[in-house]
Amino acid sequence: MDSITLDVVDWRLLDLLQADASLTNHALAEAAHVSPATALRRVKRLREIGVIERFTALLSPRFAGRGLSAICEITLDRQGDELQAAFEARAVADPAVQQCWRVSPGPDFVLIAWAADMSAFHAFTQRLFTQDANVRNVKTYFALKRAKFDPRVAAP
User: Fold this and answer.
1) 75, 129 in Cβ contact below 8 A?
2) Which residues of 125-141 are buried (b: 16+ CB within 10 A; e: fewer)?
3) What would the pLDDT profile of 8-28 be if each residue is shown by its tens digit?
4) CA-wise closest residue to 107 among 143, 81, 74
């Protein structure tokens, strides 16, 4: 991925798609000031080389019955590669986990989790943290307000 060179047109297309991936190819081409054939060819290339991982729709958590957002810091008792991989696999597989990050220094993992309410969050903690004998500590922050959420990657 380091050897991939993106030009200004690639970045313009990427910025437009990150803002609204539902644009038709013609609308995308017009906004990027390129021909529809160029836009189609470039987007196809960006997908093939892995710059574009996927297209997805971002849903508002409150409309999906997930009113509680939590940021969880997890410290494992033992940090061997196989133990970290095992916890990571369990976290990634859990539907309440929206993001899973291995971090350093500090805790071993930071998770962003969503649940419908405190009861659902408690069930999540039981299945992911309490049942895992290798979880030493969990510190959770509950989001009171989401001031910004923007997963876009800015052009250099």
Assistant:
1) no
2) beebbeebeebeebeee
3) 999 999 999 999 999 999 999
4) 74
